Amino acid sequence: TMQNNLKEHLYKILVIGDLGVGKTSIIKRYVHQTYSTNYRATIGVDFALKVLNWDSETVRLQLWDIAGQERFGNMTRVYYREAMGAFIVFDSTRPTTFEAVTKWKEDLDSKLTLANGQSIATVLLANKCDQGRDVLNNNGIKMEQFCKENGFAGWFETSAKENININEAANFLVKHIIASE
Ligand code: GDP
Ligand code: MG
Questions:
Q1: Which residue has the least CA distance to atom 24 on ligand 1?
Q2: Nearest-atom index, ligand 1, CA of 36
Q3: Digits of tens for pLDDT over the chain (181 positions)?
Q4: Pocket lined around ligand 1, Cβ cut-off 6 Å
Q5: Rounded distance, CA 116 to CA 17, Å?
Q6: Contact in structure between 100 and 50 (CB atoms under 8 Å)
Q7: Closest atom of ligand 1 to CA, residue 18
């Protein structure tokens, strides 16, 4: 019957990166269409659910938001479990947050792989692009090459504040997850 053709997908998506890069803001913008300048650090782990109509199917994205300080401990292994995709976020105005990107990627890949041994689909987000792109400009970073060398499916300049490229990045990630299944 028709009903049997209607598939539902549930994907756990990690949002990781250093403290203050905008992880929580990106999720709030994407799921609740809100933005706040009030700084409130995430405590522990937060979840948000985004439902997408994907062709004739339903895709549920379970977005996992963690506090930046908890990186690289034993906590992350538990947190990463059964994730199908990830955003690694840095702040376009703070070089140290970009330097941390490869560490986040290594931590993720060392603790989580798909059943076929591949690493999960991961997209790099250069957030706060509304404040300029110092990190990208000053270092002459070739982002396409950086993504290839470090195993990112792709990258986007985003702004949670101005709502730039967040939907696009999410759709891109979902495409890659579906292709990896
Ligand atoms: P998290 O620690 O990675 O979850 O970062 P938050 O989402 O808490 O954001 C840290 C700070 O950066 C907050 O004051 C946000 O309002 C601000 N922020 C987040 N995203 C953006 C953005 O796209 N543009 C600008 N200008 N500020 C942002
Ligand atoms: Mg947060």
A1: 128
A2: 16
A3: 455 556 889 999 999 999 899 999 999 999 999 998 876 666 667 889 999 999 889 999 999 997 755 566 667 888 899 999 999 999 999 999 999 999 999 999 999 999 899 999 999 999 999 998 888 887 677 899 999 999 999 999 999 999 999 999 999 999 999 998 8
A4: 19-25, 37, 39, 41-42, 68, 127-128, 130-131, 159-161
A5: 26
A6: no
A7: 3
Rounded CA separation 84/64 (Å): 11
Residue indicated by tokens 């439902």: 51
Q: Whose CA is nearest to atom 16 of ligand 1?
A: 37
Closest ligand to C-alpha of residue 38 is 1
Q: State the complex-level ipTM.
A: 0.99
Residue 55 DSSP class: T
CB 55 within 8 A of CB 73: no
Q: What are the tokens at 142?
A: 């070739």
What is the residue with the minimal CA distance to atom 11 of ligand 1? Answer: 20
Residue 135, CA atoms < 13 Å, CB-side half-sphere: 21
